[in-house]
Every structure is written in C-alpha cells, then in structure tokens.
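Structure first, sequence second, as always.
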C-alpha cells in the first residue's frame, strides 16, 4: 500500500483533480485489492482523526467496500 501515503498527501493539498489523476494513473480505482484494503486502513486509523476522515473520503471516491458497509459494522469494530 505504498500508494496510500502519497494519496493522503495529495488529498491534504486539496487538489481533487490531482487526486483523481493519481487514482487513475496508478489504477487504484479499479484495483480490487486497494478497494478491499482501504476499509481496513480506515478502521485502524485513530477514531476521529484527520487520517481516518481522509481515508473515508478516499474510500467514498473510489467506491471502496468501506462505503458499502453498514455503520454498525464500523462502530462495533474490535480495537487492539
């Protein structure tokens, strides 16, 4: 998931066109593995953190499985 950190940095800069271009250039939007892993990264981020919010937004933009899960599945997640 070496593409996630650069993607978060682009998101923080606020240029949605560059985020879209990055997703398309790297093929992340269509890559099933990325869309399946992104929800796990979101769940592992600190609750309410900026990182979690960004990952959720990217997930929505990509149509990841995180955006398709019921809210209670996220709320009832186990924490280490």
């Amino acid at each position: 998931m070496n593409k996630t950190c650069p993607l978060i940095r682009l998101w923080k800069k606020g240029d949605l066109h560059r985020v879209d271009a990055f997703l398309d250039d790297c093929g992340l939007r269509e890559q099933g593995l990325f869309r399946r892993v992104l929800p796990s990264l979101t769940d592992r981020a600190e609750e309410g953190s900026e990182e979690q919010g960004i990952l959720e937004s990217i997930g929505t933009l990509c149509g990841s499985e995180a955006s398709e899960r019921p809210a209670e599945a996220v709320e009832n997640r186990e924490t280490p």
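Margin note: Residues 32-44 form the longest helix (13 residues).
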